[in-house]
Amino acid sequence: MSAVPDALSVTDLRKRYGANEALKGVDLRVGEGELVGLLGPNGAGKSTLVKIACGLVGPSSGTAEVAGAKAGSAAANAALGYLAELFRFPDWLSADELLQLHQKLVGSRGGAAERRELLELVALGDVPDRRVGHMSKGMQQRLGIAQAMLGDPKLLLLDEPTSALDPAGRRTVRELLETLRGRGVAVLLNSHLLSEVELVCDRVIMIARGEVVAAGTPAELSHAGGIEITTGRGARLFAQATREDIPRLVRELVQAGEDVYEIRVIRSSLEDTYLELVGGR
Amino acid sequence: MSGVGIVAGFALRESVRRRVFVVVALLTVAFLGLYGLGVWRVSREVTEFGDFQAGVEPDTVAGATLLGLAMFATLFLGAILAVFLTLNAVRGDAERGLLQPIVVRPLGRATFLLGRYVAAAGVCVAYTVFVFLASVVITHLFIDWWPDRLLTPALQMGVAVAVLAALALGGSVLLSSTANGIAIFMLFGAGLTAGLLGQIGEALDSDTLQDVSQVTSWILPFEAHYQDALSEITADSSGFTRYAINLGPFGGAQEFGAFLWPYTVLYLSAIALVSLWAFRRRDL
């Protein structure tokens, strides 16, 4: 039994909005320093799950704990940082003032040094005095990530943190997530961008219709898709073949008089698995 | 700094940055200027009346009536301030996504509500007391009259807007900004109408009208405090002067006794409990 509680532990979590059951008994855990991606279509219950974890929404039944404390309690909220999918910061505050306010709210003693470091981390170090109202949506989103990181939280709940970012901004956030992993901060990343989740997450949890439909590492959730061999007659796909079949296949093709130019092991992407499990359009 | 202080400071800083207080200050100066002009004009006419009628003190009648008018306007201005500082504090801000980043911090929802209330009520009470006292001074500058009581009515005017601020903040938990604003102004109007009915009842000697007014004022105690404050400024008047004041639009105000104070504390506590209960149950 581990002495350190999970950063996030959810057991048989259910949430009902009238006749609609948004969560139907979800179990999941995010270990210390683990980066977990949460995937699922719109309306799957991802945001509800994240909101229950940070105490914005109360569960109908089941439990959610943050660093061993009941979700929504002061102890739980002190241990987490949160960036909502649809958020706004007061447009009259500057970036530095916003972080200062949240430092007070979270009880951080990091002072100006912490604010400066976080603004640098999210590539806003050159605009600490710019007002939120004068920032692009992408800059606000990066500022949101910085405010979520104040006070060295054990768990970061990021709900679509890159939805408004350009490719450079997404790369900044990816690098940031790697940094956080290095610092031992657990992250639950709710994102629609499967490639991003595949790139950075240790584990992926897929939710559909309020239930967990798959969980595992990105490698576990991506499966073999056959071997593609390009010969003088063009590319041919051996759909059932695996990496172990390559020598035999090449031998047979050469014996049949074909020239082999390229061999590629096909793995289905996370996207393929996702579409299989939650249903594509 | 405590959580309440942080939230209250944040709310006040927002009002400063959004120039709320500049607008309020400018309009208040305009109001007090117009009031001063009105009192000056009336003071000249009172002087022309000479002795008025035997047994009636014209300065007292004119001063009490004009200050009553100023108190009505002050309560109205205080109510506007109370409503607009609080009407979107919870549901409105939650719908705009402004509330969530603050509420997920470890300060707790009760602390957040209390901080917002301290900021709004503090500003409204200070503003109302200041405008009331300024009106008293302006009245005295042109008419040689001081109200019979000064501090108690000033405090009661402040408490009246503090009750309105509590209602508006509590309403912001349950209602959208627009619905909350409408609801609070309708309650405010209902209270004033009840007070007016009571004064008419006093003039007509109608127990029914006075009972309706009393009950409504207990349900909406900002009106009870306003009525009490009105009656306090002429508490020592008697005889024909009293009669003349009662005939005016702000005479004949009802008194609610010492029990009004503990009742107001209970009333505010009940609003706080219901608001917090609803806020804790609300999904954001």
Automatic annotation (TrEMBL), chain A:
<keyword id="KW-0813">Transport</keyword>
<keyword id="KW-0547">Nucleotide-binding</keyword>
<keyword id="KW-0067">ATP-binding</keyword>
<dbReference type="InterPro" id="IPR003593">
    <property type="entry name" value="AAA+_ATPase"/>
</dbReference>
<dbReference type="GO" id="GO:0016887">
    <property type="term" value="F:ATP hydrolysis activity"/>
</dbReference>
<dbReference type="GO" id="GO:0005524">
    <property type="term" value="F:ATP binding"/>
</dbReference>
<dbReference type="InterPro" id="IPR003439">
    <property type="entry name" value="ABC_transporter-like_ATP-bd"/>
</dbReference>
<protein>
    <submittedName>
        <fullName>ABC transporter ATP-binding protein</fullName>
    </submittedName>
</protein>
<comment type="similarity">
    <text>Belongs to the ABC transporter superfamily.</text>
</comment>
<dbReference type="Pfam" id="PF00005">
    <property type="entry name" value="ABC_tran"/>
</dbReference>
<dbReference type="InterPro" id="IPR027417">
    <property type="entry name" value="P-loop_NTPase"/>
</dbReference>
<dbReference type="InterPro" id="IPR017871">
    <property type="entry name" value="ABC_transporter-like_CS"/>
</dbReference>
<feature type="domain" description="ABC transporter">
    <location>
        <begin position="8"/>
        <end position="234"/>
    </location>
</feature>
TrEMBL record, chain B:
<feature type="transmembrane region" description="Helical">
    <location>
        <begin position="117"/>
        <end position="143"/>
    </location>
</feature>
<dbReference type="GO" id="GO:0005886">
    <property type="term" value="C:plasma membrane"/>
</dbReference>
<dbReference type="Pfam" id="PF12679">
    <property type="entry name" value="ABC2_membrane_2"/>
</dbReference>
<dbReference type="GO" id="GO:0140359">
    <property type="term" value="F:ABC-type transporter activity"/>
</dbReference>
<feature type="transmembrane region" description="Helical">
    <location>
        <begin position="182"/>
        <end position="201"/>
    </location>
</feature>
<keyword id="KW-0472">Membrane</keyword>
<keyword id="KW-0812">Transmembrane</keyword>
<protein>
    <submittedName>
        <fullName>ABC transporter permease subunit</fullName>
    </submittedName>
</protein>
<feature type="transmembrane region" description="Helical">
    <location>
        <begin position="260"/>
        <end position="279"/>
    </location>
</feature>
<feature type="transmembrane region" description="Helical">
    <location>
        <begin position="20"/>
        <end position="40"/>
    </location>
</feature>
<feature type="transmembrane region" description="Helical">
    <location>
        <begin position="155"/>
        <end position="175"/>
    </location>
</feature>
<feature type="transmembrane region" description="Helical">
    <location>
        <begin position="60"/>
        <end position="87"/>
    </location>
</feature>
<keyword id="KW-1133">Transmembrane helix</keyword>
